[in-house]
Amino acid sequence: MASVEERKSDTVKAGPSEEQWQAAEKVLISLQLARKNYSLYPENHVNCTRAQEQFWLHLDKYLRLYGNLRFDLAKDKLLFQGEIILSEPSEEGNLPFTLFRDGIQWLELQRGIDSKEVEQFLRLLNRYRILSDEPEGDLVTALWEARFPHIQYYVADMFWGAEPEFDLTVSPGAAEEDAELLEEAEEKDSKSECFSPIEPAALKMTPEEEAELREMVRVEEKRDPVSEYLDVLLDSLMELREKENFVPILESLEDVFHDSLARKHFEISLKILKSLHYVRKTCATESTWALPLIDNFFLTASSAKSLRPLQTAWLDMDTDEIGQIKQILVLLQPEAIQTLGGMLLETSSLRLQKMLLEVILVLAYRDLKPLEAMLGRPEEELVQKLVYVLGRLDGEKSTQILARMVRHPSARVRHEALKPLLSRGPTDIKGLFHLIEDKNDAIRRLVLRHMAQERNKVTETLLMEYLEQGKLNRSDDEHIIACFRTLGRCGSPRSIPFLRKTLLGRPWLPGFRKLSYRQGAAYALQSMGMEEAQEVLEEASRSLFPTVRGIARKIIEGQTRQRKG
After folding, report:
1. DSSP of 156-212, one letter per residue?
2. Using CA atoms, how far apart are residues 484 and 104, in angstroms rounded to an integer?
3. C-alpha R_g of the chain
4. Fewer Cβ atoms within 10 A, N terminus or C terminus of the chain?
5. Roughly what angle, to the nearest 10 degrees, separates helices 477-490 and 496-504?
6. What is the 3-class SS of 510-558, one letter each residue?
7. Listed residue (452, 449, 423, 447) closest to 436, CA to CA
8. Can you say how many angstroms the Cα of residue 396 is from the centroid of all Cα atoms in its chain?
9. How far is residue 447's CA from residue 465's CA, in Å, rounded to a whole number?
10. What is the pLDDT averaged over residues 49-73?
11. Against a cut of 0.85, is the pTM above it?
12. What's the pLDDT band for 71 if we cut at 50, 70, 90?
């Protein structure tokens, strides 16, 4: 076996190429990912198996291309061919400190290593990652007992790894020297048995030492292994720009995302989504192949299966947590609208419903198609709420969809769709005119009230044709009078001849509607507030027909009382 000095001299080379450095870095990053998985999950968990396989694949590729891989160690760093490749604080759990703590000065992974050897090595690294209060052995001893054929290391002044060949022949002189050394050691041991008493004052800590100890405890308690693991995963995404690296890391992030939702660690869930949005932005120009992989992550995260843990947390959700969930949901894909729609039906909390509707609105602004697809669902309550969201979206497409929804079988849905349509600038009243005969009284009133807001030739023509040609399918007097009142408010002087003819009576009037038509015409003339309309009322008050005369005089008397009042 070569001496330490000889081995060191063998490794002295010109600096590594950029490709070799990157390959070594990939091995190290995959090792860190594997260690984090082993620290978070049982050793037989699928995440550990996946991470171990990735580490071995990167390591095997390096060994085939460049030969044995050696790292030199300090307490807070790893060096590769004389240059720092990893730097971490000298704390429990960090790789450099874990190895250096037990005296390992360098570690070499050699050609021929297989997946079983890698798996056992990772298990040992995890087992001795942090020393327990009552440690059973140490990492160096465990490595020595494992007798790894392709992992060698140097501890203090001793070389460990594959069994070296020793010369067991002992010279007489050496035997005498060993006996003398043994006698000296025994003499020292006998003297060491006499201890001087310990002064209690010497054990008392100074205020500075107490403060330092408290700070150490605080830092240790604050450490979050999940957050640390997440940082490693996200850093790896930024550093490793190859598909073979992206896929397993995204799969690990997916597991962490699901777990964080289930445990209500919403700050972790939010950090993952924000970070992936940033990674996607950086990949948009440099690594476009990664975009569908990241988009697929968001699609999976938007699914009902992924978001199901939120529903179990609804009952005891406080205001801050609802705010965090909203931030998480708005970062998802618009396809999440389908999942959120189901959640709307399953929660009775008005606060949560309001939050979900706000999220759906944000997602629908990005893509209206998932919302449009949901409008065909059979649940009336859900469709009504989604139409409410649709009404708050601008644009021609949302207007077209609302116009379709005013023909929905549900009166509640029709009413919800009609309100925003009527409030949008110039409305195509021709497309909505049929609603003045809707089965729902509130819808009829809403349409007529809208048409009565201003004088409009189109509305005036539609109403005159509707009334004059007897197109009414509804025969109740209240509806007929409401239509005439509306005509009075939206009509012009050109409506007056029609109203005069209707009030004073002509043969064209259907017998069973004469009274309601004449009353309606009188109310319309009153609503117009025009001199010509008032003259018709005055003429009708002198009519030979008692019914006409009574209707007109009643209107005029009401006007007089109103002026005096």
Report:
1. TTEEESSPPP------HHHHHHHHHHHHHHHHHHHHHT-PPPPPHHHHPPPHHHHHH
2. 98
3. 42
4. C
5. 150
6. CHHHHHHHHHHHHHHHHHHCCHHHHHHHHHHCCCCCHHHHHHHHHHHHH
7. 447
8. 29
9. 17
10. 88
11. no
12. very high
pLDDT-derived band at 55 (thresholds 50, 70, 90) equals confident
Q: Which of 387, 396, 327 is nearest to 362 (CA)?
A: 327
Tens digit of pLDDT for each residue in 544-557? 888 888 988 998 88
CB 98 within 8 A of CB 129: yes
pLDDT number for residue 9: 39
Question: Among 50, 100, 92, which residue's Cα sits nearest to residue 228?
Answer: 92
Tokens representing 207 are: 């205020």
Local structure of 308: helix, strand or coil: helix
Distance CA 239, CA 525 (A): 79
Instruction: Tell me which H or E stretch contains 80.
Output: strand 77-80
**Backbone phi and psi for residue 413, each to the nearest 5 degrees, phi listed first:** -70, -45
Coil, helix or strand for 425? coil
Q: What is the pLDDT of residues 500-513, one digit of tens each?
A: 998 887 655 555 56
Can you tell me the distance from the alpha carbon of 152 to that of 149, in angstroms, rounded to the nearest whole number? 8
| Kind plus residue range of the DSSP H or E element containing 232 | helix 225-239
Cα separation of 315 and 194, whole Å?
67
Distance CA 249, CA 251 (A): 5
Please check whether residue 501 is in contact with residue 517, taking contact to mean a CB–CB distance below 8 angstroms: no
Look at residue 486 in the predicted model and tell me its pLDDT: 94
Of 559, 552, 557, the closest CA to residue 538 belongs to 552
* Torsion, CA 257, CA 258, CA 263, CA 268, rounded to 10: 10
| DSSP 8-state class, residue 241 | -
Q: Is 466 exposed, middle or buried (0-12, 13-18, 19+ CB in 10 A)?
A: middle
Q: Kindly report the average pLDDT of the chain as a whole number.
A: 80
Closest C-alpha to 427, from 493, 384, 370, 490: 490
Task: Identify the CA nearest to 143 among candidates 116, 111, 112, 107.
Answer: 107
Amino acid present at 194: C
Q: Are 261 and 310 in contact (CB under 8 A)?
A: yes
The Cα 439–Cα 437 span in angstroms is 6
**Helix, strand, coil percentages, rounded to 5, for the chain:** 70, 5, 25
Which is it for the CA torsion 401, 404, 406, 408, positive or negative? negative
CA distance 44 to 35: 13
**Residue with the two structure tokens 């919302």:** 371
Question: Residue 294 pLDDT more than 80?
Answer: yes
